[in-house]
Amino acid sequence: MERSFRLEAVVLRHSDWGEADRLLTLYTREKGKVRAIAKGVRKVRSRKAGHLEPFMRVTLQLARGRDLLIVTQADTLDAYQPLREDLVRIGYAAYVAELLDRFTYEDENENQAIFRLLTETLSRICTEPDPWLALRYYEIRLLDQLGFRPQLFTCANCEAEIQPVSQYFSASQGGVLCPQCGAGLTGVWKVSLEALKHLRHFQRSTYREAQRARPLAPVQNEVEALMQRNFTYLLERELNTPGFIKQVRK
Fold first, then answer.
1. What is the CATH number of the domain that holds 41?
2. Domain containing 210: what range?
3. pTM for the structure as a whole
4. Within its chain, how far is the Cα of 100 from the centroid?
C-alpha cells in the first residue's frame, strides 16, 4: 500500500487526542470514511488548524502511521463560510454530517456519489433561504446510496400498487403498506397522501426537479417526522442533532 497519498475530504467531526493533537473523522472522495490524526493542531501556532474544522472541504496529504493515518498537509477548498455565521445552518450541517457518520464505516472504499451528495448539500444549506428541501432530498438520496431505499410505489408486504389514498409506513418492512396490510399493525404509522407524494417525488427526481415541490408546513413536518422515525429504527438509536436544531430554532 502506498505510504503517502493525497485525498479530497470533508471533515465530519473531530475530537481532542493526547495533549495537542486531534482525531478527525473524514469522508473522502477517494476512500470513503477514514479517520486521521492531525498532530499539534491544538497549538496556537499550528498552520493546519484553520483547515480542519468540521464541515470544511479540504485536500489532505496523508501518511500511514502504525495505527492511524496522519495528516501532513491540509489546504481548504471550501470553508462553507455562511454556515459559520448562522447557528441554525451549523445545526443543519451537523445533522448532515452525523447522519452520514452513523450510517457508514471505515472501509477505504470509494463512493464518489455520496461524496458529491454531501458537498452539494452543504452548498445548498449555505445558499438556500430555507434548506428544508435540501435536507429531505439528502436523506432520501443517502438511503438510496446506502442500500436502504424505502419502497414507496408498491406495498412492502403484498406488492400491490399504492393507490392515491392515505397509507401506512413500516420501517421494519422497509416502506409503505397499503391500508389492508397496515391497518391494526403495531410499529407502523399513517402517512398522508400529500407526504407520500413528496417522498416519491424526491426519490425519482433530480434536485432541480425536486425544487418544484411546494409542500405546506404540516406536510413538511410530517415528512420530517417520518424520516426521523425511520432513521431511529435503522440506526437503533436517536440522532443527537435534531434536538440541537430544535433548541436553536427557538
1. 2.40.50.140
2. 81-249
3. 0.94
4. 4
Pair (175, 235) in one structural domain: yes
94-106: string of b/e by CB count within 10 Å (b at 16+)? bbbbbbbeebbee
- Closest CA relative to residue 119, chosen from 213, 191, 26: 26
pLDDT tens track for 33-83 = 999 999 998 897 888 888 999 999 999 999 998 889 999 999 999 999 999
C-alpha cell at 46: 499550528
Tally of structural domains, the chain: 2
Hey, which bits of the chain come out as E strands? 4-17, 21-28, 32-38, 57-64, 69-78, 167-170, 175-177, 188-191
* Domain match, 237 and 182 both: yes
Q: How far apart are CA 177 and CA 156, in angstroms?
A: 6
Q: In what order do the strands lie in the sheet with 167-170?
A: 175-177, 167-170, 188-191
Name the domain boundary from 26, 56, 78.
78
What's the CA gap between 121 and 125, in Å, rounded? 6
